[in-house]
Amino acid sequence: MSDEKLDRILALYDYLLSEEGTLLSNFGIVDDTYSIDDSGKVEILYDKPSDKYHSLEMFASLVCWNYGNNDGRGFPNLVPESYVQMDEQRVQKARTLDIPPYSYECTKALYESGNGFSIKVKDIFKEVMLSEDPVEDVWNKVIEEYIDNGLLDVIDEVNGML
Question: Which residue in 11, 69, 111, 140 has a CA-CA distance of 20 to 30 Å to 105?
Fold first, then answer.
């Protein structure tokens, strides 16, 4: 990806994360599909702004799934109440699940093996995000490269040390 293209992508992300971009991507155009009163509260003027401006939904979730991360006190909730309730139920269920304990022993064994093997998470994320290839293809290539570099042998070695 060229520097110019990356700069344009980041500029778009910066705009969409700004207050103006958040309002545009979630509610449309001021005084057309929404208005803002003197206290800063947003009022929807159009039944569903994305029905009028079809690209809104795509832009709304491109960089931020939840505009509530911004100062959302004046923003109306566009999510149906049934979805909110389902989400709350999932959160409550997740809070009751047992999470397997993390065992430092695997990490310790890998370090003590001295083989220098590591998974470069930042490099993987960068490759997935910047590649023009489908994500699945990039991910499969990453896995193949780690296997070619001895991943399965390292797993066997660490398991043998435990």
Answer: 140
pLDDT digits (tens, 9 = 90+) for 94-153: 889 887 777 788 888 888 988 888 888 888 888 888 888 888 899 999 999 999 999 999
Residue 28: other Cβ atoms inside 10 A: 21
Q: Tell me how far apart the alpha carbons of residues 12 and 18 are, in angstroms, rounded to a whole number.
A: 10
Decide: 124 and 79 in contact? Cβ < 8 Å: no
In the chain, which ranges are continuous DSSP H helix?
3-17, 19-27, 49-52, 56-62, 81-96, 104-113, 121-130, 135-148, 151-161
pLDDT in tens, 31-50: 998 888 888 788 888 777 77
Place of tokens 């039944």: 47
Q: How many CB atoms lie within 10 A of CB 102?
A: 8
Q: What is the largest CA-CA distance in the chain?
A: 68
What's the pTM? Answer: 0.44
CA distance 124 to 113: 23
- Which residue's entry shows tokens 């389902």? 86
